[in-house]
Specification:
The chain is of the alpha/beta class and 345 residues long. The chain has 3 domains: 69 residues, 434 Repressor (Amino-terminal Domain), CATH 1.10.260; 130 residues, 3-Layer(aba) Sandwich (Rossmann fold), CATH 3.40.50; 127 residues, 3-Layer(aba) Sandwich (Rossmann fold). The chain has 13 helices and 12 strands. A 6-stranded parallel sheet has the order 2-1-3-4-5-11. The chain is elongated. The N terminus is likely disordered. Pfam families: LacI (PF00356), Peripla_BP_3 (PF13377).
């Protein structure tokens, strides 16, 4: 069998998407393929040319792979979601999925793949160090500070290509992209009070930094306007949200006439719980969410909420990270929230 015939047979044996696939076709190790694609002289000329021919015949991105190998780049950006505050929360949460979708689009447009990790910090205290030291990623985007602020700060001191979705605090060392959560909380409380509310409830956890800022902003307004506000701890894990909201409504419904929910997901669950108890929204209880996810416009009645620019945030995360990969120092990006008035408040 001639060399060309052998290549034709190999080309018909399946798709080639990775170096491992190419190594299988060539009958050599993945390391040999890597060296051959990088033009390493340790691989003899005949083998090197054959592997490169195979790569071209399968549309394998030869030049990009070789360039990445020479520059010790992987072409992969890591995305980590730490869940130290609520370990039972799932990545299937609508907010996570929305932001991840925008991130995947942005990274793909810039020629990068995405590697996702759901992190339980109580099981792996060195989760961030392990991820960035794995050799599998060029940089990392962390979605949410959770209860890991100090861990992220420590890593930021010695690791440049990292950007975090979260809340910006004066003097922090890590680069962050996120909404002005305190201002968002103020906008929510102002809307509820303007509608006549006198006793505000905050549904959500107050430990995560972003949620704490939202509650603090609402509390600032409540204090200034002389109305009460109380937090009712509510988790975002699917197996606890409905149960906890039901308990709040069953035992405390008479204590408040308006709800500021920390997320749209919680607001939708509140709307359902109120409806099941025959409570009219907004006539008896006013309701404001936070995020302006697509579902907010589809509820009955449509949800008044605080809009985060999630698409703009994803663009900012990717842009700042790639600039940091080039060695730039970058400032954090704080996005202005916007009150979206619909029918619940």
């Amino acid at each position: 069998m001639s060399k060309d015939e052998r290549v034709d047979v190999e080309a018909e044996s399946g798709p080639v998407r990775t170096i491992t696939d190419l190594a299988r076709l060539a009958g050599v190790s993945a390391g040999t393929v890597s060296r051959a694609l990088a033009g390493n002289s340790l691989v003899n000329v005949k083998t090197r040319e054959r592997i490169q021919h195979l790569a071209r015949s399968h549309g394998f991105q030869l030049n990009q792979v070789a360039s990445n190998l020479r520059r010790q780049r992987t072409g992969v950006i890591g995305v980590a979601i730490p869940l130290g505050h609520d370990r039972r929360q799932q990545i299937s949460d609508v907010f996570f999925m929305t932001l991840l979708g925008y991130l995947a689009d942005e990274l793909t447009e810039r020629g990068y793949d995405l590697m996702l990790r759901r992190v339980l910090p109580d099981r792996d205290v060195d989760w961030l160090d392990r991820f960035i030291g794995s050799g599998m990623i060029d940089g990392v985007i962390v979605i949410g500070q959770s209860d890991q602020f100090e861990r992220i700060e420590d890593v930021a001191d010695g690791y440049r290509p990292m950007v975090v979705w979260g809340n910006h605090s004066e003097g922090q060392r890590h680069c962050v992209v996120g909404s002005d959560n305190r201002l968002g909380g103020k906008l929510a409380a102002e809307r509820l009070i303007a509608g006549g509310a006198k006793r505000l409830a905050f549904f959500g956890a107050t430990e995560p930094i972003e949620f704490a800022a939202r509650f603090a902003g609402a509390s600032d307004v409540a204090r200034r306007m002389g109305v009460s506000i109380k937090a009712y701890p509510t988790h975002l894990s699917a197996d606890r949200t409905a149960e906890e909201i039901a308990a709040h409504l069953d035992h405390h419904l008479g204590e408040f006439d308006a709800i500021f929910a920390a997320t749209d997901s919680l607001a939708v669950a509140c709307l359902k719980g109120l409806h099941e108890r025959g409570v009219r929204v907004p006539e008896q209880v006013r309701l404001v969410g936070f995020d302006d996810l697509p579902i907010a416009a589809e509820t009955m009645p449509p949800l008044t909420t605080i809009r985060q620019d999630i698409a703009g945030g994803a663009r900012g995360l990717v842009d700042l990270l790639l600039r940091r990969l080039q060695g730039e120092d970058t400032e954090s990006l704080v996005l202005p929230p916007q009150l979206i008035v619909r029918a619940t408040a």
